[in-house]
Structures are given as structure tokens and as C-alpha cells.
Design brief:
10 helices; OB fold (Dihydrolipoamide Acetyltransferase, E2P); alpha+beta; 6-stranded mixed sheet; single chain; Rossmann fold; 5-stranded antiparallel sheet
């Protein structure tokens, strides 16, 4: 029997939303699953239910064939009996304890020599052995992260749960530590569930993505597959697809479809199984901009338009174009300068057919 994590969590908040999240996935492969969605979508509610910190109003949770929660049978296994490791936003290290004592915190019931051996093993694995005598206030953000992971994994948990593990860090540190956290999770050898609302974080950390919208799991699959082929318009918006444009099918030929979006016509790969009314979903980074008089290109869609607005976002510029419909593109700041981007400037937007994902409308 294949080991799996299965949950059907119903949580009702007084005068608030209802979370009714259901999903199941294998624990044999794809070690890191990301619970992804906007703030308020129910991600942390699901995570706390998996940890046993909150008791759902209804539903059931099973892990590797064991029932952790079953409302109908009155089963609720407490957190300490589930064998989960927890890592919170602020890492929750005890400020008055040393690094070694923090790592040892969950090992209190073990004989002293076993506890000390495990602390030393984890400190070596996470490269904090030389920091063993320091307090958390004397550590960098990356060092605190490694200590928190070492503490969470020291009791040999069966499942690791992380709630927005990088959100407490400043942007430069967060960017630096994404890759390191992914490597640490891979080396831990424990299946993990990570909560985040950050797309870059999800792509960097996850093997599998579970998208929550309004308390419901809307799609589960490999991270890049979900981001590139959202199931419907709500998922497309939920994973940050900048362009979700109402369109109407006008023709099919040679595995391609033509749709009309506003005053423009687009060519896309035929996904099959769609009716006349669709949404055309296009990620902003899939749009290439060039001067209005641009030459020959392999892109099936060359849309003439004008710049409606610009917004600088760090090293990138978000460009809104009016090209028969409103289209958003992302370009680098040097590219924006080279193109002389300004409101009202005519441009051609190039979009390859395979970059347009058509999903049913309604």
C-alpha cells in the first residue's frame, strides 16, 4: 500500500469564512509539497490541522495509513503523538537558551548521552556546531533558520510542517536563503509541507503545489505544471497569472485554435475539450516587447498596441499595453530603457502560441 497524506478539513469561523479543504498525495516521491494561495485562503488553517494544533469542525486526516483525526469517530491524535516537526514564521527559538539547548528541546525524554549525541549530529549536519554556545540573538537570519530546522528534525519526525518559513526575513536575506532551505529539505529525508503565498518561494522550494482559494484546494500537481497549466481562471489568478482575458473561439486548424480577445485575435495550442467561451491565460514573462515596426518572428501572435502605464518593480518594469485588450508584460529595466518605454509609445507584443493557456469560462 502506497504511503499517502490525505486530509478533508472543514473549519468554520464565527462570522467569518469556511475552510473546506480536501486533498491527497503520495509520500513516496516529490518530498516537498507547497500549500499555495493568497492571504486568507486557508493555508495555515490546514497546516495547523495537520499538526494537531487545531481541531477541525468536521472531516478526517490520515498519514501513512494512520488516522490522525476523524470527526465522525471522535478521533483526535494530539500533536506530540503525530511525530511532526514544526517550523514557524519567526522560528520560535528560545532566546534564553543556547543553540545546543534549542536543538535538544524536543529530546528531553531521551537518556543524556543519546540526547547529546543527537544534538551533535544535527549541529554538524546543519553546519551550526561552532555556534552551539551562542544564543539566538547572536545569530544571523540564515543561522537561525538552520538551528530551527535542526531542532524540528532532531526528534526524527515523520512529517515536517513549515509556515511561511522565509517571511520574517528581509528581501535580500530571503533571496539568499531560498536555495539553502531547499537543499536542507532535500537532505532531511522527511516529507515536508510548506505554506507560502510567494510564487518565487513556491517555485524554489516545492516539488508539488496544492493551490487553495477561498478555503478550497483547487488544483494539485507538480509545481511548474500547475503554474504553467492552471485548471481554470480562478487557479490562474491564484498562482499569479497576470493576464486572464475573456475570449471566444473562432476557429480550429492543425492543432491550433484561434480566439478573439477584445478587438484582437490570438492563436493558441488547442487543449481540447473547450467550448466557445474561454479565458486566455498569459503570464507576463511570456510576453516579448519590441518596437512597433518589429521584423520577422517565430511567435504566432504579434499584437500591435500602445503603452498604457509603467510600474517599476525592483529590477523589472511592469508594462500595461492596450492592444485590443489590456495585456501585462514584464521586462528588465535595461530593456525598458532600450525600448524607450513611455505611456502612449507604440509597441509590438509577441506571444508564442504555446504560451497561451486556454481554460473554460464559467
Amino acid at each position: 500500500m502506497e504511503r499517502a497524506l490525505t486530509f478533508d478539513v472543514v473549519r468554520r469561523f464565527r462570522r467569518g469564512p469556511v475552510v473546506s479543504a480536501r486533498a491527497s498525495w503520495s509520500l513516496e516521491s516529490a518530498p516537498v509539497t507547497v500549500l499555495f494561495g493568497p492571504s486568507g485562503s486557508g493555508k495555515t488553517t490546514v497546516l495547523r490541522a495537520l499538526a494537531g494544533l487545531d481541531r477541525p469542525d468536521d472531516g478526517a486526516i490520515t498519514f501513512a495509513g494512520e488516522t490522525w483525526f476523524d470527526a465522525a469517530r471522535g478521533v483526535h491524535v494530539p500533536p506530540q503523538a503525530r511525530g511532526v516537526g514544526l517550523l514557524f514564521q519567526e522560528y520560535a527559538l528560545f532566546p534564553h537558551l543556547s543553540v545546543a539547548a534549542n536543538i535538544a528541546y524536543g529530546l528531553r525524554r531521551l537518556p543524556r548521552h543519546v540526547r547529546e549525541s543527537r544534538v551533535d549530529e544535527m549541529a554538524q549536519r546543519f553546519a551550526v556546531a561552532d555556534l552551539a554556545a551562542r544564543r539566538p540573538g547572536q545569530l544571523s537570519g540564515g543561522q537561525r533558520q538552520r538551528v530551527a530546522l535542526a531542532r524540528a528534525l532532531a526528534p526524527r519526525p515523520r512529517l515536517l510542517l513549515l509556515d511561511e518559513p522565509l517571511s520574517a526575513l528581509d528581501a535580500p536575506t530571503r533571496e539568499t536563503l531560498r536555495g539553502e532551505l531547499r537543499r536542507l529539505l532535500e537532505h532531511a529525508g522527511v516529507p515536508a509541507v510548506v505554506v507560502t503565498h510567494d510564487r518565487t518561494e513556491a517555485l524554489a522550494l516545492g516539488d508539488r503545489l496544492a493551490v487553495l482559494i477561498d478555503g478550497v484546494v483547487r488544483q494539485v500537481g507538480p509545481v511548474h505544471e500547475v503554474f504553467s497549466t492552471p485548471r481554470d481562471a480562478e487557479v490562474a489568478r491564484g498562482v499569479g497569472t497576470e493576464n486572464v482575458v475573456p475570449a471566444r473561439l473562432v476557429g480550429r486548424i492543425d492543432g491550433l485554435v484561434k480566439v478573439r480577445a477584445g478587438e484582437a485575435e490570438l492563436t493558441a495550442v488547442d487543449p481540447g475539450g473547450i467550448d466557445d467561451e474561454v479565458f486566455a491565460c498569459i503570464r507576463a514573462e511570456e510576453v516579448v516587447l519590441e518596437p512597433a515596426e518589429g521584423g520577422l518572428t517565430s511567435a504566432r501572435n504579434a499584437l500591435r498596441g500602445t503603452v498604457a502605464s509603467l510600474a517599476v518593480e525592483g529590477p523589472l518594469v511592469r508594462v500595461s499595453l492596450e492592444c485590443g485588450f489590456r495585456l501585462v508584460a514584464l521586462v528588465t529595466r535595461p530593456a525598458a530603457a532600450q525600448l524607450g518605454l513611455a505611456a502612449g509609445r507604440p509597441l509590438t507584443a509577441l506571444v508564442k502560441a504555446q504560451a497561451i493557456r486556454l481554460v473554460p469560462r464559467g
